Every structure is written in C-alpha cells, then in structure tokens.
Amino acid sequence: xxxxxxxxxxxxxxxxxxxxxxxxxxxxxxxxxxxxxxxxxxxxxxxxxxxxxxxxxxxxxxxxxxxxxxxxxxxxxxxxxxxxxxxxxxxxxxxxxxxxxxxxxxxxxxxxxxxxxxxxxxxxxxxxxxxxxxxxxxxxxxxxxxxxxxxxxxxxxxxxxxxxxxxxxxxxxxxxxxxxxxxxxxxxxxxxxxxxxxxxxxxxxxxxxxxxxxxxxxxxxxxxxxxxxxxxxxxxxxxxxxxxxxxxxxxxxxxxxxxxxxxxxxxxxxxxxxxxxxxxxxxxxxxxxxxxxxxxxxxxxxxxxxxxxxxxxxxxxxxxxxxxxxxxxx
Length: 330
Ligand code: 2P0
Description:
- By secondary structure, the protein is an alpha+beta fold.
- It is globular.
- The longest helix is centred in the last third of the chain and has 20 residues, at 245-264.
- Strands 1, 4, 5, 6, 7, 8 and 9 form a seven-stranded mixed beta sheet that branches. A four-stranded antiparallel beta sheet has the order 11-12-10-13. Strands 2-3 form a two-stranded antiparallel sheet.
- The termini are far apart.
- It is built from nine helices and 13 strands.
- The site of ligand 2P0 has 16 residues, from helix 3 and helix 5.
- Residues 32, 35-37, 45, 51, 121, 123-124, 155-157, 208-209, 299-300 line the site of ligand 2P0.
C-alpha cells in the first residue's frame, strides 16, 4: 500500500471539504520508555516492534488549520515558513493525503512547547495535533485508532501522541497497517515526574528516519533488538501494573542505552550523544548511587529525559540545575 492508498482506505467516504472555519487541536509530546527503532514498512511507518511511551500532559503542539485556494501556508511558532523549507514540505506531503484536489491549500499554524528537531519528539506531537485539527476541520469524527493510524502516516511516533498517559503502540502484522496504532493503558503512576534536560537545542545532524534505516540495514547489533524490546516490554508492563517506579526506570534506562549502542554500531556510526550527554548520564548514576530515585532515557538526540518521583523533585533540581519538570498525569 502507498501512503495515499492507506489514507483513502482510512477516510472511506468521508468528505474533504471543511465543515467549519478552522480546526484547533493540541497533542502532547510523548517520551518512549521502550523505543521504536526500525520500520517494517518505510512508506507507512510500520514499526518492527511494539513500543511504549508516556505522554507529557500539557506539553506538546497546538495547531490550527483552515482551507484556502492556492499553495499551503505554514507558520511555526508564529513565523511564516518558506514553502521550500524541509518542515513546510513535509507538512505539504502529508496534506496531499487529505486534500480534495491539487489546488486545495491549507493554512497551518503550529506552535511547539519544545525545540523543533532537537530529539524532544516534536514531530510526534506535531503530526498528532495536525491530524486532530484536520479531523475537526472536516468533521470526520475518526475513531481513536484511525486518528492514530493517520497520524502515523506523518511520523511513526505520532501514533502514540493521540492519547494521554502510558501508550502502547502495537506493531501489528497486517501489510496495510490497519492494526498498527497507539492505545492508552489504564494504569497510571501519579507520582511520576519527567525532568527535561536540554544539553543542546541545535537541530540534529541526522534525522530519525534515515538513522533508523541505516541502523536496521547495517548495525550488526540490530538482529538482537526486536527480542530485547519484547522482553523489555514485558518488564515495563509488569512494572506499570505493580506501580513499581524503580523497575520501570531500570528497564527504560537500559532500553535507551541498548538503542544507542545499536545505533553506534551502525556503519557508518549513528551517534546522537554529545560529551555533555555522557556527563549528565554519569551524574544520574552518581545521584542514584547516593540513593536518589532517578533514571534517564534519551531519544534520537543529545538531550536527557529524567524519570523521578514527585517527592524528589526539589532535591533533583538542586543537584541538576536547569531541569524542566513535568507531571505527566497532571
Ligand atoms: C521513539 N524515536 O520511540 C523513538 C526512540 C526516537 C528514539 O520515534 O521516521 O520521528 O517519522 O517514523 O517517529 C523518532 O522517530 O520517525 C522516534 P519517523 P520518528 O520515540
């Protein structure tokens, strides 16, 4: 299936004409605790494995979309973007999946709470917010699973940003991907806090899509990755069900390190970590050795996301200045 065919199958007979002036939507950033790394279908962003994330309540992307005749117009954080920027082109290719005819243009105004392209998952919240806004604009009333599938066609991890709390994105087995979508878990961990530690806000040199493809194609360690994810997901599920913060932190940290190890072994190497990332990782290990409940995870960039407990936030903020603390279940 092509992306256009998948979108058509999903939308069925739904109209491509607006039923209101504009659609507005918010979608949260999600942080993977057991990572998505590698696709079984590049066009449809179908993953090799399931993955598990936590949404950051209230932190993400706010998007407004409306229709006009002519080329798409995109603003990012209030600034108009030239049509030839990579960001605007990626949005326009996604809008191609839903537009009524080639001259049916969209105005998309999108605001991110986190730096774009710095490994803080802004493509996930971005495509999830845009998908929800398009659903509203056209009055589609898509089911949660269909919203997740449509968002996935924009960016894989967006499949998880359509729900709050813990979300499991099922890889599915179908070639058309209709069984590959994010589903929220009922369990909550109210005391969980996420500390965002920005080591560098620069755009990353290599995007996730090519980095994943290269890792899957060339890393001699990749063969072990799917089995590892399966066992890490079992451990993470058990930890969440038991409300066991430490067990969840341990498996999330180990899974992130295994993902980065697999990337570093790619040929040529895929290395997202900076010296400051390593220093921060070692600082976390020192604090944990002193008895502080803190773990880290790192995505396709140099920044750390720390996992801790509410009662520890003040002490952690003193030990590691510059943290932005988020209550994911707030
Ligand atoms: C994740 N990441 O599970 C993993 C871990 C980064 C590290 O999903 O090609 O932007 O659009 O499907 O979703 C980032 O990759 O890639 C990502 P595409 P995406 O969160």
